[in-house]
Each structure stands twice: as structure tokens, then as C-alpha cells.
Backbone:
């Protein structure tokens, strides 16, 4: 999707606030030394800063990422743009179900109900009807989100309550919010009150 690994890394840093260099290397598919070099370039440009081993985007970094996404939208295939629009529409419908389930979970946290909430969230992931062909930038991106959501739902189904909305580990809530932000940005639309969060 992005023209350079630096642009791709900045986008990940923006969406995964507090990502480590090691996590970033895995996500963008580079070795640790190269990820360290990329983060160094991003920091030197003033687009991110490091805090306690995590990389956090700056205001200048937000603007740079917006510009990179805008450039992608300018050269993206029509099929990719249509897929973003269609998937965003489905996401907004399913988002209401997810917001209700996560709000209910946060109000009624107990080990006995983790499995039932995991089942509800698994249903929400199924309702999204992720594209199955994996062709094109957006389809590959969405498949990565599908895999991450499925993984945290499976952890929750196994009894891991932190997989629903934990803050120290990847959770359904964190991945869902990241996907939401990604869709808003890729579609070029403005976040509304209906989007929540």
C-alpha cells in the first residue's frame, strides 16, 4: 500500500500507539536492525518519539501519515477503494453490536462469562464477511485484521479475559479500534458521533 517501508512503519506506529520496535519489525516484515533504522529515520524527521521502549506518533507524524494515505488513495485501484467503502459500511453496522457487547463486558466482568462474550464477538467477526480472495492491498490488509481478531477471540474462548479488552496485551477491543481507525482513514471520511470512541 505504501510507497516506502518508512511510510508503512509510520502508519503502524500511528495505529498501534506504543508499539515496540520488535513488534513493528514483525508487522512490516523486516529484520530488527532494519526496523531500528526505520524508527531512527522516523524519529529524526520528528514524526515519532520513543517512550520506555515504545514508539509513539507525534502531531507531525499524524500529518505525514495522513499525506501518505492520501497519496495511496490517489494511486489505489478502484477495486481497492470500493472494497474499503463496502467493508466500512458493513463495519459500521456490526460496530453497534460490538460496542454493546464490549460495554456489557466491561460492566459485568467475571470469569464465568468470558466464553459467552467470545462467542458473541466471534459472531461479529463472521458478520463482517471479510473478503476471501486476498487479492489487492486492501484485501490483504483486511485479512491480517481478520487473523488478529480471530486469534484474540480464540484466546478469549479459552478463558483469557484480557483477550476481550485487556490493555497490556493485544485484545479484541484494541484490534477492533485499530481496524475502525484504519477504515476511517482509508475511506477518507471524517469520524462522526455515530462512530463512537
Residues:
Amino acid at each position: 500500500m505504501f510507497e516506502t517501508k518508512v511510510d508503512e512503519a509510520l502508519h503502524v506506529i500511528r495505529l498501534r500507539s506504543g508499539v515496540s520496535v520488535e513488534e513493528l519489525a514483525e508487522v512490516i516484515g523486516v529484520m530488527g536492525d532494519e526496523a531500528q533504522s526505520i524508527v531512527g529515520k522516523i524519529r529524526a524527521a520528528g514524526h515519532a518519539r520513543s517512550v520506555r521502549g515504545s514508539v509513539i506518533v507525534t502531531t507531525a507524524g499524524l500529518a505525514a501519515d495522513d499525506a501518505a494515505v492520501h497519496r495511496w488513495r490517489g494511486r489505489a485501484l478502484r477495486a481497492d477503494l470500493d472494497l474499503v467503502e463496502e467493508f466500512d459500511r458493513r463495519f459500521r453496522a456490526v460496530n453497534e453490536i460490538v460496542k454493546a457487547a464490549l460495554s456489557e463486558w466491561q460492566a459485568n466482568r467475571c470469569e464465568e462469562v468470558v466464553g459467552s462474550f467470545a462467542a458473541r464477538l466471534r459472531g461479529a467477526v463472521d458478520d463482517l464477511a471479510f473478503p476471501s480472495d486476498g487479492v489487492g492491498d486492501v484485501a490483504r490488509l483486511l485479512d491480517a485484521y481478520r487473523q488478529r481478531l480471530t486469534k484474540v477471540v480464540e484466546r478469549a474462548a479459552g478463558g483469557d479475559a484480557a483477550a476481550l479488552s485487556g490493555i497490556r496485551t493485544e485484545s479484541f477491543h484494541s484490534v477492533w479500534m485499530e481496524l475502525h481507525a484504519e477504515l476511517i482513514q482509508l475511506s477518507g471520511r471524517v469520524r462522526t458521533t455515530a462512530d463512537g470512541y
Q: What stands out?
A: The radius of gyration is 17 Å. The chain has a mean pLDDT of 91. DSSP finds nine helices and two strands in the chain.
